[in-house]
Amino acid sequence: MHMQPTSSMKEEFLQKWQMGLQIYRPLIDNTSVSERRKAIKLSADVAMASLRRGTTCWSRALIQKTATEDNFLVRQMLSGIKAETLINKKLPKVMCHRKIVRRSKKILRRRKSRSAIEEVAAKARKLVKKKTQGLRNVVPGGEFMSNDVLLIQETLDYIVSLQTQVNVMRSIVDAAEAGSERTAYYLGKLKFAIEDG
Amino acid sequence: MDLSGRFGARSGDGVPFREATALESLHLGGGGEEFRQMVPPENAGGFTALLELPPTQAVELLHSSSSSASQATTLHSLGTLSFPSNPLLMERASRFSVIATENQQNGNVSGETTTTSSVPSNEHIKTEPAETETCDQAAVEKQSNRCGKRKELDKKVKSSTKKKSKSSEENEKLPYVHVRARRGQATDSHSLAERARREKINARMKLLQELVPGCDKIQGTALVLDEIINHVQSLQRQVEMLSMRLASVNPRIDFNLDTILASENGSLMDGSFSEQSYHHRQLQQPPSQQWPFDGLNQPVWGREENQDHGNDHNNLMVGSASLHPNQVKMEL
């Protein structure tokens, strides 16, 4: 199933990310560091999500989220129909209002005599429920996954994709930083040479 | 209605989920009966194997149940689970049939626990959803061992609140309900579904545990989920960090990944940056692949060396030219 990021995934991610960055190229001169960071991150996110081609819930949610920040980028990066359907699709209107559901469940639940062990079990369940809610908050689109099975499946896929994204980005960043060091080094050398000569 | 030696008409949730609708159709409403029996003929093989009954007899029982509405006996049906304790089941079932004859009029299934002297009165068994095999086995053994207290508590731990609430609604008389009563509920499709769902969740959690480093040692779902959440958050933070780093690097570089790699090529000539070669090998770009950007076509750094020797300075110049156009002009 999903295991470690494969090299083909990494390559595809790199390609798509580059395509996204190219879109920003005309604008680089006028940007600040934070704007550039945002552009980099957004293109990386869309690239990561587009690898899944709309099959997973988290990827669709991530694309929609990014579209709210930069609609143009998303449209350009996802060519064709996919962009339209993904962006224009309404988010599910009926969100499971968990608080309301929980409260009504509490009302319905009859008071029973609680033994110690029952209470422990109930607490354990509550804890697990809290954690799954925490997981929903972290995974994009998690709020719409009322099904626990789906949530865990999506988390699996999301983690693998995140790993791919991180691996490729780290390689590029290391190369870029080393490159800039090197360039600075050579520029310094040049300068030195010129001044001397 | 001679119920001796016959097994019950109702039962419940042992059958596979897809049988659930068939089960529904066989439901016998009647006299406070709370279970329905589900041994559809095509499944008779599975059940009867468990019960060690001849198939015909089981089918007969099944169909006879439709005529005998007030049967109190239930089949301890656990169709989806294998039963090593078949003999126990038989013994138990036979006991139930005895009980049933005595308690025919008693619509309450837990009559098994109340009236007969063969069953000690202190055998209180909570109805619990059979969510795991061990649960079911414990249930069977429990009944046969007549010392349900401890095991019932174990089962309690494993049950869900949903099931509990249902059981409390179902049992009018006793605080403790027999396990089978619980499973024989009209909600057996629910319990089936719940069990299947739980198994799915557990399987996927195992996968997650393998994926997230350091999770296999942890016991308990809540802690594992904690680890998973932390891992996801750390990955997200790394992405933020990396994009910040890339943005802080000279502007021209971030948006021209090809120049990064081109200039990197130059740096590798010196052989002093082993890290980059490692990272680029991570990318593992196959040589045959066509890249939109020439600079990316660096399959193996070693191979490019010869070609780029002459271009070494050019590349650097290109890199720096894109870096600081003004600065380079000044230099030159």
TrEMBL record, chain A:
It comes from the Eukaryota. InterPro entries: bHLH_AtIBH1-like (IPR044549), IBH1-like (IPR044660), IBH1_N (IPR059002). Signal peptide: none annotated. CDD domains: bHLH_AtIBH1_like. Keywords: Nucleus, Transcription, Transcription regulation. The lineage of its organism: Eukaryota, Viridiplantae, Streptophyta, Embryophyta, Tracheophyta. PANTHER family: TRANSCRIPTION FACTOR IBH1-LIKE 1. Residues 7-68 form the IBH1-like N-terminal domain. It is found in: Nucleus. The keyword Transcription regulation applies. The keyword ATP-binding does not apply. This is IBH1-like N-terminal domain-containing protein.
From TrEMBL, chain B:
GO terms for biological process: regulation of DNA-templated transcription. InterPro entries: bHLH_dom, bHLH_ZIP_TF, HLH_DNA-bd_sf. It is found in: Nucleus. Keywords: Nucleus, Transcription, Transcription regulation. Residues 101-176, 300-332 are annotated as: Disordered. Its main location: nucleus. The keyword DNA damage does not apply. This is BHLH domain-containing protein. It comes from Brassica napus (Rape). The lineage of its organism: Eukaryota, Viridiplantae, Streptophyta, Embryophyta, Tracheophyta.
